[in-house]
Design a protein that fits this description.
The protein is an all-alpha fold. The chain has one domain. It is 75% helix and 0% strand. α1 runs parallel beside α3. It is extended. 28% of the residues are buried.
Length: 173
């Protein structure tokens, strides 16, 4: 495998790993701490865990930006845009299109509605909503990566050799 391919795979797998770990920390760890606090009324663990989770979420977005910058790939940018938009808008998609309202069936077909509901329940139902925040960051990083990739491709296209601007050789009347 070539260097750009390896960088692209690392950026894609790293992004997936960051989202999986963030979802687990938010929906399993933080939600468990929240339930213990509600049962014991001891807020010490929550007061320490929540700021640490916020810093980890911000750090995850920075790590995604570094991975995308390192890969410098249009494919990574496109993948980050699609996955980031999915997680950023998952809550809205679930409420608007995958949830039955007043007895009316969901807009989306049952398998897709169930899939969205399950992903929402297992990924974004935590108190911090870290996957949605990371998804929004991933969406923006993906757009920037696409822009930089297209810009670098445009600058790599050879242009006609004209040299510096020259004054006209004939005097103007």
């Amino acid at each position: 495998m070539s260097g750009p391919t390896i960088r692209m795979l690392v950026a894609l797998l790293g992004g997936a790993a960051i989202l999986v770990v963030a979802a687990w920390l938010d929906t399993a760890v933080l939600l468990g701490i929240e339930h213990r606090v509600a049962a014991t009324f001891d807020t010490t663990e929550w007061a320490l865990a929540l700021p640490a989770a916020r810093v980890a979420t911000a750090g995850s977005i920075l790590a995604l930006a570094l991975l995308a910058w390192w890969a410098r790939s249009l494919r990574v940018g496109l993948a980050y845009v699609v996955v980031g938009a999915f997680f950023a808008f998952l809550g809205s998609l679930n409420v608007l299109f995958a949830t039955a309202v007043n007895g009316a069936p969901p807009v989306l077909p049952e398998p897709i509605a169930t899939f969205l509901g399950q992903v929402y329940l297992h990924a974004e139902y935590g108190p911090l909503n870290a996957p949605a925040v990371i998804g929004a960051g991933m969406l923006l990083i993906g757009l920037a990566t696409i822009g930089l990739s297209l810009r670098s491709r445009a600058s790599a296209v050879p242009r006609d050799e004209e040299g510096p601007m020259q004054a006209p050789t004939e005097p103007r009347p």
